[in-house]
Amino acid sequence: LTASRAGVIAAVDAERQRIERDLHDGLQQRLVALGMLLGRARRSRDPGTARELLVQAHGDIQRAIDDLREVAWRVYPSALDHSSLDEVLALVAQRSAIPVQVSYTVPVRPPRPIETVLYFVACEAITNAAKHARATVISIKISPRAKGVEMLVHDDGVGGADPHGSGLQGLARRVSALDGRLEVHSPPGGPTTIRAALPCA
């Protein structure tokens, strides 16, 4: 119990650090650049130039909103309040730069903590595949198992994912906190398969 509690605290701290990096490296820098852009527009004596700068600023505001929404989703997937996990993952798949195929065959909706953990596992796997694996397709299969639910995330990338990296370790702690198991199989050359098994009624 002590080890599990320490793991949860470490996972929360790692997630806080990631949020801080996202805000600092993404949203904060975008807002600083936006302020400079608006300052140039205000100082411009050419109405045409000022209009172009304002159009650019308007686009930057929309991107800043998208960045903020992305960070918020990583903190708390509020869409699960009114949508099922498969519906939320379908939205994630639409926003992915890599095609994502989602198969969901769980007949009864799992408890919210289970859905939340599976959501984070899927999002981390998609992010890793897009950033590091050079994958061309990702498949997510969520199915019932004896006394629980299982998620398999598979990509056709180059493999080599480090199960001891901070992202996957954070997921392992999240899964372990619910008495589940996370397994990562990612040999050099690929493919990568992540399996999360969680107990539930």
Tell me roughly what share of residues is in helical segments: 55-70%
- Tell me the β content: 15-25%
Low-confidence stretches: none
CATH superfamily of the largest domain: Histidine kinase-like ATPase, C-terminal domain
Shape: elongated
Global structural class: alpha+beta
The total tally of domains equals 2
- Taking the alpha carbons of the first and last residues, their distance comes to 22 Å
Mean pLDDT: 85
Run of helices and strands: HHHEHEEHEE
Q: If strands are numbered along the chain, what order do they take across the biggest sheet?
A: 1-2-3-5-4
By CATH, the architecture of the largest domain is named 2-Layer Sandwich
- Calculate Rg over CA atoms: 20 Å
- What is the CATH domain class of the largest domain? Alpha Beta
CATH topology of the largest domain: Heat Shock Protein 90
Strand segment count: 5
Name some characteristics of this structure:
elongated, 5 helices, five-stranded mixed β-sheet, 17% strand, Heat Shock Protein 90, 2 domains, alpha+beta, 201 residues
Structure, explained:
- With 201 residues, this protein is an alpha+beta fold.
- 58% of the residues lie in helices and 17% in strands.
- The longest helix is centred in the first third of the chain and has 42 residues, at 2-43.
- The protein is elongated and about 70 Å long.
Q: Can you give me a brief rundown of this structure?
A:
The chain is of the alpha+beta class and 201 residues long. It has helices at 2-43, 47-75, 85-95, 112-133, 166-177, and strands spanning 100-104, 138-145, 148-155, 181-185, 192-199.
